[in-house]
Amino acid sequence: MHKDIFVWIELRHNKIQDVSLQLLSEANHLQTQYKSKNIEFKVVGVITGYQTKAIYDECFKYGADKLIICDNAKLQEVSTQHTTKAIVDIVNEFKPDSLLIGASVIGRDIAPRVAARLNTGLTADATQIEVDETPNSTLLLVTRPAFGGNLFGTIVCPNTRPQMATIRPNVFEKRELNKTNYEIIHFNTTFDSVDLVKLIKQEPKLSHSIDISKARIILSAGRSMAKHMDLIQQVANELGAEVGASRGLVETGSISKEHQVGQTGKTVRPLVYIACGISGAVQHTAGMDKAECIIAINNDPNASIFQIAHIGIVGDAVEILPKLKEELLKLKA
Ligand SMILES: Cc1cc2nc3c(=O)[nH]c(=O)nc-3n(C[C@H](O)[C@H](O)[C@H](O)COP(=O)(O)OP(=O)(O)OC[C@H]3O[C@@H](n4cnc5c(N)ncnc54)[C@H](O)[C@@H]3O)c2cc1C
Predict the structure, then answer these.
(1) Are strands 311-314 and 293-298 parallel, antiparallel or unpaired?
(2) Ordered DSSP codes for 301-327
(3) Which atom of ligand 1 is closest in space to residue 317's alpha carbon?
(4) By mean pLDDT, which of 18-22, 194-198, 224-228, 249-253 is the weakest?
């Protein structure tokens, strides 16, 4: 009998990646949906690492009822070879109904390998998960963008277990749930003595790298702002904001891809998202529509971005932004 919702806890240098905490919290949402159908599933965090004790509390804080821990020197850094083996062995031993993994660069490497070895289905890069309402069904309805983001497809995995999905960072919120009644299980397995992949050394990126996915305020610019990037940067500095971009702007070469928001860029969830000269194509909005407050500046009153904006300003961004900057400077004076 397969049961429980497993979440793989992704670690880098023994720090839990936010996406795993977001998934633990979302798994609690699924747990409530199961409960309403009298199905009792636990939220189980799967830890594969080395000397990981310090992170257990954080997992319980964000919603784990139980942890299964495979602690081994071979797992000190995520390893395509050994981490895959550890997760597969845990799944074969504990038989979860579902296994959720963050769609990070590492998660996208590990999850398909795990799914292939378990001969089960994987929905990659999902943006929504719900429990099927049919009585007694444990099926998950997992939604992901398809056909270049023009359609959303809901995928089910009726015949095999676990049902696997990778979920994009920042699609769900992490919530403090502070589980007090929890369980810890230590799991040992054997590893290949030969390392097929060897990590020689890790070097931090030398360029100033930004992470817009953690920003509280994002000033995002579209294609039409390509010649006005100084203005965008100045206003962003005054606002204490990071600069985001549409793919249209990235394609002009005025800004690097790490600033891109959307389906093939980053998913962001800031308090304030200011979209300047961005049309609001579905591939862009898929990455920012969960911002608390969306302010759109566009000279076309019919631009689709206004359909999701909380505040819409119809006008030329090149005229409006300097005024905004002036007002901000006045506030500071
Ligand atoms: C498979 C696939 C994946 C994609 N992934 C992404 C993605 O991750 N992120 C993304 O952004 N896009 C993505 N796209 C592209 C997306 O479909 C759009 O083409 C893109 O978002 C358009 O960028 P834009 O709004 O900056 O440019 P445009 O479509 O050129 O729109 C410019 C907007 O600026 C307005 N404007 C012009 N001048 C001014 C001015 N002076 N002041 C105010 N407003 C002005 C115009 O009215 C218009 O609304 C993807 C497309 C595909 C097919």
Answers:
(1) parallel
(2) TT-THHHH-SEEEES-HHHHHHHHHHH
(3) 42
(4) 194-198
- Which band of pLDDT confidence, cut at 50, 70 and 90, is reported for residue 206? low
Summarised one tens digit per residue, pLDDT across range 297-333 is 999 999 999 999 999 999 999 999 999 888 887 876 7
Residues 6+ apart with CB under 8 A from 105: none
> Among all chains, which residue has been given the structure tokens 């961005």?
278
Specify the residue with its C-alpha closest to ligand 1, atom 26.
222
| pLDDT at residue 207 in the model | 55
Element (H, E) at 129: strand 128-131
Average pLDDT over residues 139-166: 91
Cβ atoms of 171 and 152 within 8 Å: the answer is no
Provide the β-strand partners of residue 43: 5
Query: Ligand 1: which of 151, 170, 220, 224 to mutate, most ligand atoms within 8 Å of CB?
Result: 224
Kindly give the distance from the C-alpha atom of residue 263 to the centroid of ligand 1, in angstroms, as a whole number.
12
Residues 6+ apart with CB under 8 A from 120: 157, 160, 161, 162, 163, 164
pLDDT at 208: 60
Residue ranges of domains in the chain, CATH in brackets: 5-186 (3.40.50.620), 212-332 (3.40.50.1220)
CB 42 within 8 A of CB 56: no
* Of 151, 223, 285, 324, best ligand 1 pocket probe by most atoms within 8 Å of the beta carbon: 223
